[in-house]
What we know:
This protein has 119 residues and is mainly alpha-helical. The chain contains 5 helices and no strands. The termini are far apart.
Amino acid sequence: MIDSLSQRLVPDELWVLVEPLIPPAKERPQGGGRARTDPRAVFTAIVFVLTSGCAWRHLPPSFGVSVPTAHRTFTKWTEVGLWRQVHQAVLDELGGQGLIDWSRAVLDGASVRAKRGAA
């Protein structure tokens, strides 16, 4: 079930882009184990924590995802580069629709300390 908050955080259009990028669950060689938590629910819970600024331990149970599951999955997805892939997919989609105004883009550079001595 997707409630209105979940739908606002991760609309269907975003989920269509994200779902193929979610790494598949690893198969246990011995079989068994728990059923995998719904990836969309986990993604939505993570988006809630990241956009609201709440602590992981305050994740509302209404998302249907436990705090350890949400945090462990966030860590795993970070390690495999999911967030960079999602960012690129969203930029590609918006760019393909002509919805990005590149005239307003800003590039940032790092400052490097100048060396002393002769130029």
